[in-house]
């Protein structure tokens, strides 16, 4: 049973389920294991949620025309690319030596109370708090590294699903 042979709806539903599982695991780690997310983690969650939403809408709509499938694929790719950028920045911050300021500043709640949305976004991405801390690893990769892997895999999945030639029934 080759997933690449599944229909568009099933493939996009799988993308949604993967995103939902990743978000669920992040929330589990936060609530049950006490791992507090940093601002860059929150932005990665937002990117996963946006990607999940696009996968779900694409699966529910299930366009029959190639242009519709390609539109959903490109939109999902863009959401994944944003996630790649955020996760990549987080990995960079984590890999910086501690003495070089590998942190991301005050908590997101404080930033949002004292700054406008664009200033908050810019401040968080400049990496000034606890984003440099490594609280969790699996197979030698940190959570942002795994996020980067998953965003890249889901970006490829969205494009392959959307641009793959389909047989007529």
Automatic annotation (TrEMBL):
One of its GO terms (cellular component) is plasma membrane. Residues 1-11, 165-169 are cytoplasmic. Disulfide bonds join 38-41. It comes from the Bacteria. It is found in: Cell inner membrane; Cell membrane. The chain crosses the membrane at residues 12-30, 42-60, 72-92, 145-163. Keywords: Cell inner membrane, Cell membrane, Chaperone, Disulfide bond, Electron transport, Membrane, Oxidoreductase, Redox-active center, Transmembrane, Transmembrane helix, Transport. Residues 29-46 are periplasmic. One of its GO terms (biological process) is protein folding. It is a multi-pass membrane protein. GO terms for molecular function: electron transfer activity; protein-disulfide reductase activity. Required for disulfide bond formation in some periplasmic proteins. Acts by oxidizing the DsbA protein. Belongs to the DsbB family. This is Disulfide bond formation protein B. The lineage of its organism: Bacteria, Pseudomonadati, Pseudomonadota, Gammaproteobacteria, Lysobacterales.
């Amino acid at each position: 049973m080759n997933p690449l042979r599944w229909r568009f709806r099933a493939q996009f539903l799988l993308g949604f389920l993967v995103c939902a599982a990743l978000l669920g695991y992040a929330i589990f780690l936060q609530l049950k294991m006490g791992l507090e997310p940093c601002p860059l983690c929150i932005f990665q969650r937002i990117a996963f949620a946006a990607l999940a939403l696009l996968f779900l809408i694409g699966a529910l709509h299930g366009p029959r025309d190639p242009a519709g499938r390609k539109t959903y694929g490109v939109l999902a790719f863009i959401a994944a690319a944003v996630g790649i950028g955020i996760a990549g920045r987080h990995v960079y911050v984590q890999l910086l030596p501690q003495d070089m300021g590998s942190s991301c500043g005050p908590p997101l709640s404080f930033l949002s109370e004292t700054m406008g949305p664009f200033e908050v976004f810019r401040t968080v991405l400049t990496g000034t708090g606890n984003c440099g801390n490594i609280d969790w690893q699996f197979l030698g990769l940190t959570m942002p590294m795994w996020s980067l892997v998953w965003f890249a895999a889901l970006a490829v999945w969205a494009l392959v699903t959307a641009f793959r030639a389909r047989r007529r029934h």
